[in-house]
Description:
The chain is mainly alpha-helical.
Amino acid sequence: MRNALYFLASLLCAVAVAFALHSWLAQHNDPGYVLIGFGHWSLETSLTVFTVALVIGFFALYSFFRLMGVLLRLPGQFSKRRRNIKFNRSQEALIAGLFDAADGNWESAEKVLIKHAANSGAPLLHYLTAARAAQSRGALDKRDEYLQKAAEQSSDNNLTVGLTQAELHMSEQQFEQAIETLSKLQSINPGHGRVLKMMHQAYQHLGDWEGLSKLLPSLQQNKVLMETEVKLLQTKTYSGQLKKAAEQNDTAAIQTSWNEIPDHIKSLPGIANIYFAAMIAAGAGNSIEDAIIKQLGKHWDATLLELYSNIETENAPRQLQTAEQWLAVYPNDPTLLKTLGKLAQKVGQMEKAEQYLLKSLNIEASVGVCQLLGEAMLRNDDKDKACQYFKRGLELASKEVLSQLEDQAQPGSAQA
């Protein structure tokens, strides 16, 4: 519109100039004379007519070239308009696809997103959302296809596609594939918080304690977890490594795993108990007997006492003598009394064993003590008493089972 106004204003100015020139020439009774010659051709006219023709010719040529410019630009404008229409449709499709995905209409969301992805300004978002929709409806092949297309739209150092792929693998319990993807992402950005956290979760689900132990320094250095979470994770990781080594029933593997654990983790009673139990089960109780005694001096623990009583040693009397020294400090500890009764049985001191076990039973009745007393009575050929103790042990075991079932039946227990 503005160009048309400029054109009309210029034309009016040209007409005004031509009219002014004609009026000035008329005042002098001289219309002017113009002669144009070209070869054998010549053109004669008045100055006024020539000026008017010149103005008209100029505007005619100007209009012609403007029209030609418009015609030449017309295909490009049509193409640009088509692109704009497709782009606007793709944006509308993206919004519709996101709404469908939010409403759980996975098939509809996938269809509309893929149809308009090629014309979108954000094709990556189309493909990633379509991949989520495909997985949600169980089409894992389509999911992988869309993820591949998204990767083609993304740069090599872009973590978005990899993170989405790993997240989708984890939601499908495909933890090994998730680890493979996350390991590549970690090589690109070693300190990326979300990558490290997802790796930590995947390793935990797989029970890969070795991989998790290697990841621990990065988790701590990059502050992905709180300090308390790191300590808890360290405890779970190293205890998991010890349990895995214990399954091999190999003393060397257990010892190697124990040596790799930091000192501040070794000092935790639960970790130490796993190590001691594994060594005893592997037949290497003699090598850790002194360590158990030292640990009991630092931290009195009922589980550790039970482990101490299970050590197969060549010097059982010395083992009993060591345990009896603890009576001075813990005279009424039922677990210690049970341990003393068991050790006394080992050395054949049946009367002393019965005394320790009866005292333990009077303080705290337990299935283990009843079983040991029953075995002691059998050795003494007192079958009636043995049956009584075995019966009492069964009753205690039944009560414990019923109590556990009642706890599980409580409304809060399922949530816990």
